[in-house]
Amino acid sequence: MGQPIAPSLRLEIVKSRQEEKLSYRDLAARFKVNYHTARNLCLSYEKRGEAALVPGYSIVGAG
Fold this sequence. Notes:
- Helix content is 57%, strand content 0%.
- It is mostly helical.
- Helix 1 (7-20) crosses helix 3 (35-48) and helix 2 packs across helix 3.
- The longest helix has 14 residues, at 7-20.
- The two termini are 17 Å apart.
């Protein structure tokens, strides 16, 4: 499993999409994330707002 993306980076991705109208492919390349990660993050932000900036899973097996 990959590492969680920091909320600050999530915000940068979303803002770049909104302000610069970048494609998901361009976002993925710029921020070095998977295409689907960029897409899902942006779509989730459109539906859920700032709640989408917080990772929605717990760390399994931590402790």
